[in-house]
Design goal:
The structure is a homodimer of 572-residue chains. By secondary structure, chain A is of the alpha/beta class. Chain A has 17 helices and 30 strands. In chain A, strands 1, 2, 3, 4, 5, 14, 15, 16 and 17 form a nine-stranded mixed sheet that branches. In chain A, α3 crosses α4 and α5 packs parallel to α7. Chains A and B meet through α1, β2, β3, α7 and α8 of A and α1, β2, β3, α7 and α8 of B.
Chain lengths: 572, 572
């Protein structure tokens, strides 16, 4: 193809597409420049004066390199990769560094590969990072396990672009054999290793970095960010649905250090993407927070391309792939046209590709396996009257542990009028019949039960309720719909549910459909008393994440994260 | 090794070497920071407070990443790779991107590989770029030819890190088949392609870049540099023996664009390296010209590592290779200690490695092959009295063409008292007996002959003189010493010569010895009238470079570069 590019660049041959009268971001010099942008096949061949078979008069609009999300779990959108692509591509995101950690915990390596295979049917370029920590802890029952040996085998495959965020940082710092094996395997293949190192600093950070880890997106505040940058990490500012630090940490970005910043979304729901946007919204937020617009754009384009070795991506220049996002200005970042590999793939917020038909291989179907569930299984028989309860605070995934005093009746706790709910985690992958039981404070719901099969990181079935019968009903509903979210209203005797038919964590529905169904079920949960500051479903999804303090519930029992050991529900 | 690095970083295991009380360049944030620098094996494992088996108290000295020369022809030093390493490593240069274009023109692919094999015996890391344009033109006789097919085969070898500067830019712009074949072969292997594009701009530059070329070191002035940066090229500021633009172009470097600047030496003689320095001198010059010191350092370290994909090189940070240059300050850049892969390899300007024994394979030995040369062969029989002469201007490799009027005698031009000299190029690789004859103005020598076997790019034997006998004598001397430089003083009947026994272009002598011998022969040439503003030998070395205007002499005859065709010496 080089011959064609050269011929088009010198105008011996007509270009395929020319964006006339454009302004464009020169991310190498941090300037806006003017010119026509000439495209031949999949690449930009020149900037200057050009004619093309197809011409778009941009009339001074601004052409940016297509956006790169430096770290995302597509599953967190709750959409299929096709559905995800259909809402992020029109926002200008054309490449994502995706860690399919959630679906891999459910379905193993086939789940990971499914994400890329499904995305391949869309213009979204998915660079797949092999999940490094499946399961998150050895204490729970996940759908799959990737051992050091599995990582050694898989990281050599072309399917995997690098090793996903190494969340188990204590293992790296300890020099744990399995952790080292995984990292060495990635390095042997010359593949990048993403990091996850909240609050790590000093020698512990040095040790973690000696695993050859290049990024962190769990970074907050000037001090932490500067130390990580200075030690060679690329720092990704995050613009997820819950974790968002661009507004606060945008001020740390300056002329001298901005080349090492990235932008990522990590976990962002379909509803937020549909309502506010994706990387475009991150850019808007960054500029509103005072980040120089071209610097912000560079973070979301060239920097990510350099960090991950995405050759000829991330800039508007000859021989670069024609991945472009056209915006009206550098304040609102309203994306009007999106090109991927030279093709117009979205216009005025609408995808120009068909994402309706979904690729759903057998490995991600029918993943919810529980036996017959009866109300009695939710009985909590205490030895005395004092028990440990998990306390939930709105806006945080860190929980507390509180000792509560509560009566019992017929071999079960009596939580009526207690502001305390029952929490249950039912193993749903392997029919072990495991059920972990606990108590929850701070959620604020009554009159039935709420449940979901999205529960980090093993994604077992998590149910909260104030009576055993309602909880059993929700469990059966979730099993019947193949996983998803459900709420049962005892007074109305009404069950509302949203199927997440892909691995029990993602929906094959169209984004608008999923968003509408979610709104309905969320609304009911709030009507039933969930505190306004608490996310009715997402907050629950973190109640079994045993790597975030303090008290969590696994399918195998109540877990004290600080002691990294199980703990008895009886407080005495 | 990861386990050992981690253990050392967290101080579970003692570090091998610790640089105590250091200041160090944080090239990620453009700051000087303080701390101990801990080394385990070949890598830095941490910055902070550390103890080591060996400790150096730096007492506030500044630790920089080891310097990377982004583009160099080692042959231009006239030293063997070992000799070159012995003088640049103590100056802080630990990695070079080397294009062995000269030795390859003489000895072919074996010559190229020799450079890396010889350097391997030293701590200098040589990343070998496969010469892309051998020979420079199809009109002359070189020692070797690398066809598109050869490039396809060789670029796939691990020995070659990338494709060397693509000097034949007209061929790229034309979309010439062989040029495209070479570039496509490099891209197919994912290897970098260096550029060489003096004054190219606009669509011609776009077309050149569509060859997938990433750098340029032939760049001068704000306008040209900015266009090249904006189109994605890394621009190398050059600090060679003749071409030097850091002082003038340092002011183009600013906060927004400096990440895309590199520093290179291209062609720098042993004498300049010994007297002034190497990249250290470039940094000194840059800072004196007003470039921010940490920006200058970043250009010579991290930027080059990023440009060429040198993983974990170019910074002082955990897991980076311990390639370090310790300097007293950021003004004089006086290098006191140099570490390569964690080992102290030079101290106070002296190498701590043995470079005395040279690796000289047969392929680079005995490369000067000419038959019996008699004085008569230098006769120039004109048809009339008017002839074309090459005019030489001090400090420039661009020549002119002047028509001169001169008498003849016995079938030879009579140049006595004419300020005109005879110029001859004798093919010296393949015993073809080719001899190109011409006239030279502007050199300013009389009383004998000067000759050398360094003549870009084919490195035939080039002789200048004012009588045929002296010229023949010099030719025979050069053949006898296996190539080199020689001057014959007719009045004293004295021959001075410096052997360049490696390919006729490099010396196996120690640097000091070569510098002293060169000084002697240069002194004699100036005594014999070479104009002070003209480099007595190097200026001649460009008289046969048929890719630089205007009139040049090849072994095959007089060549008009602008017409890109041979031309008759007779002016009428």
């Amino acid at each position: 193809m080089i011959k064609e590019y050269i011929d088009a660049a010198i105008s011996r041959r007509q270009c395929d597409t020319v964006l006339k009268n454009a302004r464009y971001a020169d991310v190498f010099c941090g300037k806006l420049r003017k010119g026509d942008i000439a495209i031949c096949g999949d690449r930009i061949v020149g900037v200057g004066k050009y004619r093309g078979k197809v011409e778009y008069d941009l009339n001074g609009k601004i052409v940016l390199p297509g956006f790169i999300d430096a770290h995302v779990h597509i599953e967190s959108s709750k959409l299929s990769p096709e559905g995800f692509a259909s809402i992020v591509v029109p926002r200008g995101t054309v490449t994502v560094i995706a860690d399919p950690h959630e679906i891999t915990n459910v379905c193993g390596e086939e789940g990971a590969k499914y994400v890329a295979a499904a995305a391949e049917r869309t213009p979204l370029e998915v660079k797949l990072m092999l999940p490094s920590c499946v399961p998150a802890t050895p204490f729970e029952t996940s759908g799959a396990t990737l051992s050091g040996g599995d990582i050694q085998r898989l990281i050599a495959e072309n399917a995997f672009y690098g090793l996903g965020e190494f969340m188990n940082y204590p293992a790296v710092i300890k020099g744990d054999g399995e952790a080292v094996k995984k990292l060495e395997a990635a390095h042997a293949q010359g593949k990048a290793c993403d990091g996850h190192a909240p609050a790590l600093h000093g020698k512990a950070l040095n040790a973690y970095l000696c695993g050859g880890i290049i990024t962190d997106h769990e970074c907050e505040g000037k001090k932490e960010i500067e130390e990580k940058l200075s030690k060679g990490m690329y720092v990704a500012l995050r613009h997820g649905s819950t974790a968002r630090n661009i507004q606060a940490d945008g001020k740390v970005v300056n002329a001298k250090n901005y080349r090492r910043f990235l932008i990522c979304t990590d976990d962002r729901h379909a509803s937020d993407i549909c309502e506010y946007g994706h990387i475009d919204d991150a850019l808007r937020t960054a500029v509103a927070a005072g980040v120089d617009p071209l610097r912000a754009v560079t973070m979301a384009t060239l920097n990510a391309a350099e960090c991950y070795g995405l050759k000829w991506r991330g800039a508007v220049a000859p021989f670069y792939f024609a991945d472009l996002a056209v915006v009206d200005d550098l304040e609102d970042f309203c994306v009007t046209h999106v090109f991927k590999n030279g093709k117009l793939v979205a216009e005025r917020g609408k995808p120009l590709f068909d994402a309706a038909e979904k690729y759903i291989p057998d490995c991600v179907k029918d993943t919810v396996h529980i036996g017959t569930v009866t109300a009695d299984e939710f009985k909590i028989a205490l030895k005395g009257t004092r028990a440990k309860a998990i306390t939930l605070t709105g806006g945080s995934i860190v929980t507390g542990c509180e000792t509560v005093e509560l009566p019992s009746l017929n071999g079960d706790v009596n939580i009526a009028d207690m502001q305390i709910l029952k929490l249950a985690v039912l193993e749903r992958h392997k029919l072990t019949g495991n059920i972990g039981l606990g108590l929850l404070k701070g959620y604020g719901f009554h009159g039935g039960a709420v449940g979901l099969t999205v529960a980090h990181d093993s994604h077992n079935m998590l149910i909260v309720g104030d009576d055993n019968r309602s909880m059993a009903k929700v469990a059966r509903e979730l099993a019947q719909i193949g996983g998803g979210m459900a709420v049962y209203d005892r007074k109305q005797d009404e069950m509302l549910s949203v199927p997440l038919d892909i691995g029990g964590i993602m929906s094959s529905a169209e984004p608008a459909e999923l968003v509408a169904a979610s709104e309905k079920i969320y609304a009911r949960a709030y009507v039933m008393g969930v505190k306004p500051e608490v996310d009715a479903f997402l907050s629950l999804a973190f109640m079994s994440l045993a790597v975030v303090p303090r008290l969590k519930l696994l399918d195998t029992g109540l877990f004290d994260v600080e002691k990294f050991a199980f703990t008895d529900i009886n407080a005495d």
